[in-house]
Amino acid sequence: MVKASTSRDDWIDAAYAAFLRDGLGAVRVEPLARALGATKGSFYWHFTDRAALVDEVVARWETEQTDAVITLAEAGGTPRERLEGLFAAVAAMRRDAAALLYVEAAAHGVGDAVVRVTRRRIDYLAGLLVELGQDPDEARRRSVVALATVLGIDQLRLVRLPDLADPALTATALAMVLA
User: Fold this and answer.
1) Average confidence (pLDDT) over 38-63
2) What are the tens digits of pLDDT across the range 153-178?
3) C-alpha pair distances (Å), 171 with each of 4, 9, 57, 120
4) Each residue of 84-100: pLDDT tens digit?
5) Which spans in the chain are helix H?
6) Distance separating alpha carbons of residues 37 and 107, to the nearest angstrom
7) Residue 166 phi/psi, 5° resolution?
8) Residue range 72-89: average pLDDT?
9) Hey, what long-range contacts does 170-173 have (CB within 8 A, 24 or more apart)?
């Protein structure tokens, strides 16, 4: 049954849910239309093409998994407290198939957006480390390693590695960045 009216936000919500569940490859017009009980015409009323919808999904990913985390970390007081808050927030996030975004980005035309978000993440962490007294170049290197560690852990979660359930991993990662 076709729904009377499917809004732009309905399309974005459905696409983002598909992305989190199965990666960017799941952001496809026909399956989303079926799931929404909408027509492809409804989709094209709101978006020029699939790439426009993918751009909206990546924008939401940035908002929910970067902006919100930085805002949460900024609620802390000292640079050390903000850094601890950042690590705790990142550790608590469920990223599921969104972990594939770094692998899928170029194939789906969002590589530039992923690079921009990655630079924001590295810059934010490096800024905290500089506030804690680290040399700016060393702070940047440590920030790159920290992000690479998170991405590696995300990939390992996809294969359900049991060692990742250890709650001390976050404290170990933080200690390594601060060492």
Assistant:
1) 94
2) 877 877 878 887 787 888 888 888 88
3) 51, 38, 31, 23
4) 888 888 888 766 677 77
5) 8-22, 29-36, 40-46, 50-62, 68-74, 79-92, 101-104, 111-131, 136-158, 168-178
6) 28
7) -70, 115
8) 88
9) 170/87, 170/88, 170/91, 173/87, 173/146, 173/149
Say what percent of the chain tops pLDDT 90.
54
Query: CB under 8 Å to 92, separation ≥6 — which residues?
Result: none
Which residue ranges form the domains of the chain, and what is each CATH number? Answer: 52-178 (1.10.357.10)
Q: And the tokens for 41?
A: 């015409």
Q: At what angle do helices 29-36 and 8-22 cross, to 10 degrees?
A: 110
pLDDT at 101 over 90: no
**Structure tokens given for 74:** 């900024």
d(CA 162, CA 116): 32
Amino acid at 148: A
Q: What percent of the chain has pLDDT over 70?
A: 95
Looking at residue 77, the DSSP 8-state letter turns out to be S
